[in-house]
Amino acid sequence: MEELKRSVAREALKFIEDDMIVGLGTGSTTAYFIEYLGKLIMEEELEDVYGVPTSYQARLLALENGVPVVGLDEVDAIDIAVDGADEVDPYLNLIKGRGAALTMEKIIEYRAGTFLVLVDESKLVERLGQKVPVPIEVIPAAWRAIAEEIEVFNATAELRMASKKDGPVVTDNGNFILDARFHRIDDPLDLEIELNNIPGVVENGIFADIADIVLVGTREGVKRLER
Ligand SMILES: O=C(CO)[C@H](O)[C@H](O)COP(=O)(O)O
What GO cellular component is one of the record's annotations (predicted)? Predict the structure, then answer.
């Protein structure tokens, strides 16, 4: 599995050119990409490339590996964003947010000229929600109310608990995460919009109609899916 992640991360480097502003995603697959990107920059095979991190994890990795970072408010445009995903459906709709970085990821990836997604074949599903819940970032005071309100969508929601800290996961933005399991997601774009209409919801992990290209690491090599 790690080798599949490495192979898509290596393939993603082919999309990066001099003078690009690159959105840096979060997670284990993107971590390889940031490592390899840093190597090319340090070896001066790429020049004037800057990364816009989607999380503290991406920022730390970029700094560690020699990728210069800038904030979203310091750039005019993002040429390309590179990130992993937890599920990809046949229309390239995604579920993201296992790493709790979904809000900044969506802010950056929505604005990128190209949004390139890196996954291994285990992430491909027929329908979103088949394997993983939909993460929803919420304002802490509203978590219980939102968890109840989500039941009207035929879903159950659980507050995500931390593993190396007592109590709930707190996102980079100081919020909580609800993991929502839906009976069936028929229209990802509609659900994405509906969830964001609930007061107290900051953002949700459905990324409908945003991905441009998905690189899939398989045992037979890297496959390219495009919308
Ligand atoms: O959405 C994410 C973080 O919020 C990640 O991109 C997603 O969870 C995939 O991670 P990995 O590459 O480790 O499987």
Answer: cytosol
Span 47-74, pLDDT tens digits: 999 999 999 999 999 999 999 999 999 9
Q: For domain 134-205, say whether CATH 1.10.10.10 is its number.
A: no
Q: Where are the alpha helices (DSSP H) in the chain?
A: 2-12, 28-42, 56-65, 102-111, 143-149, 188-196
Query: Which tokens go with 134?
Result: 């939909």
Identify the CATH assignment for 2-124+208-226 out of 3.30.1330.30, 3.40.50.300, 3.40.50.1360, 3.40.50.150.
Answer: 3.40.50.1360
Q: Read off the tokens for 38.
A: 């840093």
Interval 8-19: pLDDT, tens? 999 999 999 999
- For ligand 1, mutation pick of 5, 30, 214 (most atoms within 8 Å of CB): 30
Just list the catalytic residues.
105
Per-residue burial over 105-114, b = 16 or more CB atoms within 10 Å of its CB, e = otherwise: bbebbeebee
- Ligand 1 atom with minimal separation from the 118 CA: 12
CB half-sphere exposure, 210, CA atoms < 13 A: 26
